[in-house]
Write a structure and sequence with these properties.
Low-confidence stretches: none
Bound molecules: S-adenosylmethionine
Number of strands: 7
Radius of gyration: 20 Å
Mean pLDDT: 93
Distance between the termini: 41 Å
Shape: globular
Length: 317
């Protein structure tokens, strides 16, 4: 299924099956994007959706969909890490389901002026929202050690120190302001390996995660989603790389009481206190089928995990 122009929703069949939308219920699509999930949910059941995106362009595009479903789709610009405050400001205090489709949309990647892609020349921006420091700001300001840590932590880049040194040397000669400039510097120190993956891939992922504080956002959103879910409400998350999936997996296992002993994954006390109120809908992550991967390469690394809040009588049983 193709939305307006560009973003093909990933694992849509599985999202609908695990979210299981019903008439009269209220859902949150925390990553509206091209509106692919939202449209399918609205078409599946006579429900209401609150949709969040931090990208003002995604929210503006959504107006067409909102007018096609009068009174049933409400768009909110903001971060999903602030979903509780965003929804409370609208008087929403309970949800029957939350869906998150992490990462960037094709609209964002394919627009060279957003600076997400090392395949196209554009400003080194990478902000999903309209504010805060850009990737160029990080590349200009961070020390060699800070850059190396960021590339290692958020890109799992084993050559992080070499790349950081090359960036610091290059920026002493000329400011690094474009995607092709940065990709060229990385390719200059890392020859292509046999995998065929561009050497700039991991560093671009790391910068994008850093610029948008993506991992902190996910932790906040998972925590807040479980607080606002009603009994029998579902939380469905589609992630695209191991850093995201690890957070989702540990959070859901802990929330469903699957972690051995006291939680090792919740040092900051992010989880709700009533731990056994949830059950895993997916024991193992669901993966897209071969037909979907063949038709949409972006789906290749997708993993879907889902959690369900138990009803009082189920907790007591
Ligand atoms: C993969 S796309 C979602 C695509 C959507 N499911 C569809 O079918 O069209 C992810 C979207 O989430 C948004 N996003 C990512 N992180 C966010 C955050 N922390 N808060 C709000 N929106 C976020 C991005 O701007 C992007 O538009």
């Amino acid at each position: 299924m193709m939305t307006v122009a560009g973003h093909v929703p990933v694992m849509l069949t599985e999202v609908l099956a695990t979210l299981d939308p019903k008439p009269g219920e209220i859902y949150l699509d925390g990553t509206f994007g091209g509106g692919g999930y939202t449209r399918a949910i609205l078409e599946r059941a006579a429900c209401t959706i609150w949709a969040i995106d931090r990208d003002p362009q995604a929210i503006a595009r959504g107006a067409v969909l909102a007018s096609a479903f009068p009174g049933r789709l409400h768009l909110l610009e903001g971060r999903f890490g602030e979903l509780l405050a965003l929804l409370e400001s609208q008087g929403v205090d309970g949800l029957d389901g939350v869906v998150l489709d992490l990462g960037v949309s094709s609209f964002q990647i394919d627009d060279a002026t957003r600076g997400f892609s090392f395949r196209a020349d554009g400003p080194l921006d990478m902000r999903m929202g309209g504010s805060g420091p850009t990737a160029a700001d990080l590349v200009a300001r961070l020390s060699a050690d800070e850059l190396a840590d960021l590339l290692f932590k958020f890109g799992e880049e084993r050559q992080s120190r070499r790349i950081a040194r090359a960036i610091v040397a290059a920026r002493a000669l000329q400011p690094i302001t474009t995607t092709t400039q940065l990709a060229g510097i990385i390719r200059g120190v890392l020859p292509p390996d046999r995998s065929g993956i561009d050497p700039a891939t991991r560093s671009f992922q790391a910068l994008r995660i850093g610029v948008n504080e993506e991992l902190v956002e996910i932790e906040r959103a998972l925590n807040q989603a479980t607080r606002i879910l009603r009994p029998r409400g579902r939380l469905v998350v589609v992630s695209f790389h191991s850093l995201e999936d690890r957070i989702v997996k540990h959070f859901m296992n802990d929330a469903a009481g699957q972690a051995p002993g006291p939680s090792r994954h919740d040092p900051r006390g992010l989880l709700p206190t009533e731990l056994a109120c949830f059950e895993l809908v997916t024991r193992k992550a669901l993966r897209p089928g071969p037909a979907e991967i063949a038709g949409n390469p972006r789906a290749r690394s997708a993993r879907l995990r889902a959690l369900r809040r138990l009803a009082d009588e189920e907790v007591a049983a």
